[in-house]
């Protein structure tokens, strides 16, 4: 396919996503089934265009003065893929599958500056109803944070130090230009591709099958490192899901001590057993309501990590359609779940032990708000300084901009695409009084 046909496809798919409120993955899959002649390069290019439109839906609509699928796709292609008007004219004229040629209005919108006066949430590409949450979290920097969340994400890998080191994995993945991550001492990064290019499927590499690395964003690696660095013989990953953090905690522990991976919904464990085996992990027990519970650990755990269910706003770079699908009811539901997991998990912490609350969200209600409410209700817990844990876990000083002070309570850590070039992550480290 030429780019003209790819633009037409992206317009069709965006129309489908918006008019039928469909998840992007479903709409892309259906299009693929109906157009089997499209090659893998075409699918990658069309998928990238669709996701880029979803990343910048509001700011593109403002620039184009129109929110139709056609305007958004042409806007993404012209500005995010950096194609000038001459390129666009050529693409639209030399292919019978291409969309209609540019109108005068489109030509003006694509060649001129962005019109002044856009509301902040549109400049930031954040849904209007969520904007107050962004302002509460970031104040004057809210637009900058939203814009960074509307970019593409790199592919981050966590080296499994039970089986390999960074050098070994970097060498195995040399053809992808995997470079060391700046903050996580066990991370490697493959840069976000531009335009139609796609990220490599690293899971089909031998090094992956041998358990040398896992795919994990650098912020998520750091959240696990902070929790794992607090020490102690018995740790609980209370919301373990498929075990992303469990695996990281186990590697950090060097298979010493006991780690309990727990989830209220044990179907979420997915292929956790296979992952643990591949990684050479020997100190993890699975717990949950369908089998052994954590009742025996009440008041006995050294560290409990709560990687709480959340709206996932910090991962919008990777899942941009989630931005437009999250609804007010879902936020309320997540807050209720967060309150419940924190209350349940806190009971496990021994006197002097640690409770770590993490989310991959950047909304104040899920982060600062939850910690303030928890500390109010649980005076036996206090925040501990993330900078100390950072130094202990990574061997380096915590960079400026990560520590955030919660008034009268202490500091938490927050990673964001704008400050650390990672997914958005919030981590509060708490300790229970002796
Ligand atoms: C953010 S995900 C965990 C991701 C996982 N830690 C990882 O790194 O791959 C949150 C998990 O919390 C679980 N969850 C929700 N409510 C819970 C509860 N009350 N107790 C324990 N787990 C809960 C969900 O089933 C979900 O698997």
UniProtKB/TrEMBL annotation:
It comes from the Bacteria. One of its GO terms (biological process) is methylation. The keyword S-adenosyl-L-methionine applies. Keywords: Methyltransferase, RNA-binding, S-adenosyl-L-methionine, Transferase. Residues 145-433 form the SAM-dependent MTase RsmB/NOP-type domain. GO terms for molecular function: methyltransferase activity. It holds the Pfam family Methyltr_RsmB-F. S-adenosyl-L-methionine binds at residues 263, 290, 307. The active site is at 360 (nucleophile). Its EC number is 2.1.1.176. The keyword Ion transport does not apply. It is an enzyme of class 2 (transferase). CDD domains: AdoMet_MTases. Belongs to the class I-like SAM-binding methyltransferase superfamily. RsmB/NOP family. This is 16S rRNA (Cytosine967-C5)-methyltransferase. It comes from Rhodobium gokarnense. The lineage of its organism: Bacteria, Pseudomonadati, Pseudomonadota, Alphaproteobacteria, Hyphomicrobiales.
């Amino acid at each position: 396919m030429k780019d003209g046909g790819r633009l037409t496809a992206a317009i069709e798919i965006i129309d489908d996503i918006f008019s039928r409120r469909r998840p992007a993955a479903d709409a892309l899959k259906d299009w693929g089934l109906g157009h089997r002649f499209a090659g893998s390069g075409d699918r990658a290019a069309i998928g990238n265009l669709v996701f880029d439109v979803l990343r910048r839906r509001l700011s593109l609509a403002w620039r184009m003065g129109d929110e139709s699928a056609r305007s958004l796709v042409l806007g993404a292609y012209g500005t995010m893929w950096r194609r000038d008007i001459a390129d666009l004219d050529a693409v639209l004229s030399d292919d019978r599958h291409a969309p209609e040629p540019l109108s005068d209005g489109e030509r003006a919108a694509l060649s001129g500056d962005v019109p002044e006066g856009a509301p902040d949430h549109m400049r930031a590409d954040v849904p209007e109803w969520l904007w107050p949450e962004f302002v509460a979290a970031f104040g004057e920097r809210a637009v900058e944070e939203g814009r960074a969340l509307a970019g593409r994400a790199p592919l981050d890998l966590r080296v499994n130090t039970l089986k390999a080191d960074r050098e070994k994995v970097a060498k195995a993945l040399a053809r992808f230009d995997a470079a060391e991550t700046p903050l996580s001492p066990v991370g490697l990064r493959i840069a976000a591709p531009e335009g139609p290019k796609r990220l490599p499927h690293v899971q089909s590499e031998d090094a992956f099958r041998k358990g040398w690395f896992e795919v994990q964003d650098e912020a998520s690696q750091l959240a696990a490192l902070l929790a794992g660095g607090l020490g102690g013989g018995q740790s609980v990953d209370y919301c373990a899901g498929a075990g992303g953090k469990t695996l990281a905690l186990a590697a950090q522990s060097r298979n010493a001590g006991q780690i309990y991976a727990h989830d209220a919904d044990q179907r979420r464990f997915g292929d956790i057993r296979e992952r643990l085996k591949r990684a050479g992990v020997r100190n993890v027990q699975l717990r949950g309501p369908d089998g052994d519970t954590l009742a025996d650990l009440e008041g006995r755990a050294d560290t409990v990590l709560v990687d709480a269910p959340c709206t996932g706003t910090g991962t919008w770079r990777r899942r941009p359609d989630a931005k437009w699908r999250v609804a007010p009811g879902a936020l309320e539901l997540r807050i209720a779940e967060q309150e419940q997991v924190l209350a349940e998990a806190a009971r496990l912490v021994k006197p002097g032990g640690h409770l770590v609350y993490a989310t991959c969200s950047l909304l104040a209600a899920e982060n600062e708000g939850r910690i303030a409410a928890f500390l109010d209700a649980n005076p036996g817990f206090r925040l501990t300084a993330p900078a100390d844990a950072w130094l202990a876990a990574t061997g380096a000083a915590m960079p400026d901009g990560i520590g955030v002070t919660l008034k009268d309570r202490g500091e938490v850590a927050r990673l964001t695409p704008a400050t650390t070039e990672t997914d958005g992550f919030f981590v509060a480290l708490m300790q229970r009084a002796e």
